[in-house]
Amino acid sequence: MRPTEIIVDLDAIRHNFNAFKNLTPSSTPVPVVKSDAYGHGAIQVATALQAHGTKALAVFRVEEAIQIRNANVTVPIWVLLGALDCEIDDAVNYDLTLACWSLDNAGKLNDAAKKAGIVQPIHLKIDTGMGRLGFLPNQVFNAIAEINSFSSLRLCGAFTHIAKADEPCHPVTASQVEQFRIIANDLPASCNQIHLAATSAIERRLMDALPYNRPGIGIYGIAPEKESNLDLIPAMTVKSRLISLKDIPKGHTISYNCTVTLQRDSKIAVVPIGYSTGLQRAFTNKMKGIVRGKIVNNLGTVCMDMTMFDLTDVPDAAQDDEIILLGKQGNAEITAWELASAANTIPYEILCNLGQAHPRTHLN
User: Fold this and answer.
1) H and E: helices and strands count for the chain
2) Hey, which residues does 322 pair with through a beta bridge?
3) Distance of alpha carbon 254 from alpha carbon 262, whole angstroms
4) How confident is the model at residue 166 (pLDDT cuts 50, 70, 90)?
5) Do 10-220 and 236-334 come out as alike in CATH topology?
6) Which of 14, 220, 264, 364 has the most crowded Cβ, counting Cβ within 10 A?
7) So what's the architecture of 10-220 in CATH?
8) Given 115, 256, 275, 348, which residue is catalytic?
9) 55 is catalytic
10) What b/e sequence results for 192-202 when a residue is b if at least 16 CB atoms lie within 10 Å of its CB, and e otherwise?
């Protein structure tokens, strides 16, 4: 047993999936379970969502898709990166839908599919403004003509990704939406798995008439911006234990670099989690915990494997008490956005780092 663990509430994930279904009833949500389901456990989340009725799932890498497929998940799996050269021969054997973002990639996919005796479904990845992978808008229809000449490929979808979905009126966002709208209107009828919106764009109803959308972080109960009207329940709780609790006199320093000198006689707790196990050194003197329903402050530099907290104002605290680092206890709560703000980052990074560093327990 390890003293720090991740609790994942699968009922919360089901609730969040339903919230997206209800928000855009004409567009089918395809939950994104990449990066080990944002730290929540891809196999467990994928299995729960399949049983709950999802029509498909999305991942980033072929390796992730194969892991999920081997766990008896049978719904379609969209691989948003597609297959790299070193993965193509494996990818065509697992009934995956692969993104395609270059004609070179298309040719290699066609050769591998022909060798495997299958017709490989693909989604055309279109770069409308991210500057990453994908065909530029003026290349799309020439690419489609070329792809249609490959006997072992079936173009069944197309997608893009919005760079500033939290600003729907931003010129880049408006341009991306308009470019994709023009392309989508002229796609062949067989290319009908069309998708643009991730969580932020779904909330802002960007092209919500498209047949599919891709909720990512929202599936796990976190809005992509601090202010949101989405009906979401956070699915992850991070909890640990006070492995040491001792009285330290006023004037004593705490942790590396002596960033804290105690201004009063204090009760200091040590928690066995640090920057090697999901925290960030940037949390130093900024993060909080919850012990016996009360908010407590981190004191001193976050260490590689340990972090100290001030328990002076929780006089009944005892060694081995539970401490919540993310989530709720009683009426107190620490959110992913609060942790992200403390480290000047985003909740996505918080969930992925913490969720993949500790044993997980899945509820419900």
Assistant:
1) 11, 20
2) 241
3) 8
4) confident
5) no
6) 220
7) Alpha-Beta Barrel (3.20)
8) 256
9) no
10) ebbbbbbbbbb
Which listed residue (21, 34, 55, 226) is catalytic?
34
Per-residue pLDDT tens over the stretch 141-163: 999 999 999 999 999 999 999 98
CA dihedral 59, 63, 65, 68 (to 10 degrees): -120
- In the chain, what are the domain boundaries? 10-220, 236-334
Q: Could you tell me what percentage of the chain is helix, strand and coil, using 3-state DSSP and rounding each to the nearest 5?
A: 30, 25, 45
Farthest-apart Cα atoms in the chain, separation: 78
**The two structure tokens encoding residue 225:** 């911006």
Q: What percent of the chain has a predicted confidence (pLDDT) above 90?
A: 89
Q: What is the mean pLDDT of residues 121-135?
A: 95
DSSP state of 258: G
CATH 3.40.50.300 for domain 236-334: no
Strands of 84-233, DSSP E: 97-100, 120-125, 153-159, 193-195, 212-213
Q: In the predicted model, is pLDDT for residue 225 greater than 90?
A: no
Mean residue pLDDT of the chain comes to 95
* CA quadruple 69, 97, 223, 343: dihedral sign: positive
User: Is 34 noted as a catalytic residue in this protein?
Assistant: yes
